[in-house]
Every structure is written in structure tokens, then in C-alpha cells.
């Protein structure tokens, strides 16, 4: 089995969108459902087109099985909506993508990688902690639908 991780091109936004929807479907029935399940494809297309965001895709044997969105600032790389559909989980795909993200950030001379995780998703927090991320702040944010969501900001110094 061979895998490749690469920056997504604007024309691949539909693949990013499809994977994200599959991965986030399980969060539809949370007290405050994830806004990812209602995010339109045009939002991803525009973010990539304008350079506001980048996205990565994980391919294994030619099949897209993971993605994440990236935002850069002067000192850090922020990743969001890390997505692996249920049928592809448990194979280390998320960890491989995060390792790629960290290497990419180092290549861009960033000092840290950050992400935000819902406090209710303990298994996701544990995954990130297992690979060196630390909770640096708890914060309640309003999702795009205006509902409050308790989150943690996690980071890893590079």
C-alpha cells in the first residue's frame, strides 16, 4: 500500500468537501451539531482560490481517504476539520496527515502547529495529546449558526 499527501488544488475542493462530510456526519447529533456538515462546497472552493486556506488530501493506492484544512499566519500553522471517514479509521491516516502538516509548517519556518477541538470529543483530544499536542486554552466559541461550543485550543511547538 502506498500513500501520498499533497496540497489540494482548487479543482479538488469537491473531494475535500466529500471526505469532510463523511467524517463529520457522526457529529450531526451532538447537542450542538458540527457546522462542518452544513458547510457548502463553495466555501472551500473560495477559501482555496483566494488563498485564505489551503487543504491537504491523503491518498492511499489512489483513493482519497483523508483531508484537512490549513491556515497560516506569521508564526504558526492552524489545521482544522481534520477528516478521516469512518471506514478508513484506525489505520494511522490522521497521524500521518498531522506529521505531514508539522513537516510542512517547519519548511515554512513556523514555530508551532495549532488546532481547536470540541471539549466533548475526548478521543480526539487524546489522539492529539498522544502525538505531543498540549491543551493551552479552554474557550467557548459561537459556531456559524450562533450556538456556543466549548472547545480547547491545542498546540505543539516545532
Topology:
Layout: E1 3-7, H1 13-24, H2 41-50, E2 54-60, E3 63-72, E4 76-83, H3 93-107, E5 112-118, H4 122-130, E6 134-142, E7 148-157
Protein name: GNAT family N-acetyltransferase
Keywords: Acyltransferase, Transferase
Domain N-acetyltransferase: 3-158
Q: How many discrete domains? A: 1
Q: Name the CATH class.
A: Alpha Beta
Look at the structure and name the CATH superfamily.
Gcn5-related N-acetyltransferase (GNAT)
Give the N-to-C terminal Cα separation.
29 Å
Give the helix/strand class: alpha+beta
Mean pLDDT equals 96
Strand content: 35-45%
Q: Looking at the structure, what is the overall shape?
A: globular
Describe the sheet with the most strands: 7 strands, mixed
Series of H and E elements:
EHHEEEHEHEE
Summarize the structure.
It contains four helices and seven strands, in the order E-H-H-E-E-E-H-E-H-E-E. It is of the alpha+beta class and 158 residues long. Helix 1 (13-24) crosses helix 2 (41-50).
Question: How is this structure best described in words?
Answer:
It is a single chain. This protein is of the alpha+beta class and 158 residues long. The protein has a single domain (3-114), classed as Aminopeptidase. It has four helices and seven strands, in the order E-H-H-E-E-E-H-E-H-E-E. The chain has helices spanning 13-24, 41-50, 93-107, 122-130, and strands at residues 3-7, 54-60, 63-72, 76-83, 112-118, 134-142, 148-157. It has a seven-stranded mixed sheet with strand order 1-2-3-4-5-7-6. A hairpin with a 5-residue loop joins strand 6 and strand 7. The protein is globular, with a radius of gyration of 15 Å. The two termini are 29 Å apart. The relative contact order is 0.15. The model has no long low-confidence stretch (mean pLDDT 96).
Amino acid at each position: 500500500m502506498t500513500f501520498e499527501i499533497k496540497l489540494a488544488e482548487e479543482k479538488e475542493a469537491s473531494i475535500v468537501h466529500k471526505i469532510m462530510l463523511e467524517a463529520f456526519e457522526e457529529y450531526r447529533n451532538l447537542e450542538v451539531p458540527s457546522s462542518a456538515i452544513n458547510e457548502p462546497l463553495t466555501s472551500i472552493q473560495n477559501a482555496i482560490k483566494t488563498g485564505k486556506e489551503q487543504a491537504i488530501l491523503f491518498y492511499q493506492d489512489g483513493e482519497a481517504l483523508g483531508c484537512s484544512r490549513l491556515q497560516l499566519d506569521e508564526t504558526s500553522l492552524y489545521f482544522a476539520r481534520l477528516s478521516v471517514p469512518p471506514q478508513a479509521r484506525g489505520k494511522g491516516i490522521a497521524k500521518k496527515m498531522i506529521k505531514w502538516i508539522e513537516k510542512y509548517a517547519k519548511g515554512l519556518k513556523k514555530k508551532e502547529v495549532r488546532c481547536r477541538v470540541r471539549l466533548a470529543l475526548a478521543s480526539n483530544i487524546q489522539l492529539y495529546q498522544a502525538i505531543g499536542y498540549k491543551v493551552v486554552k479552554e474557550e467557548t466559541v459561537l459556531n456559524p449558526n450562533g450556538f456556543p461550543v466549548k472547545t480547547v485550543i491545542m498546540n505543539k511547538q516545532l
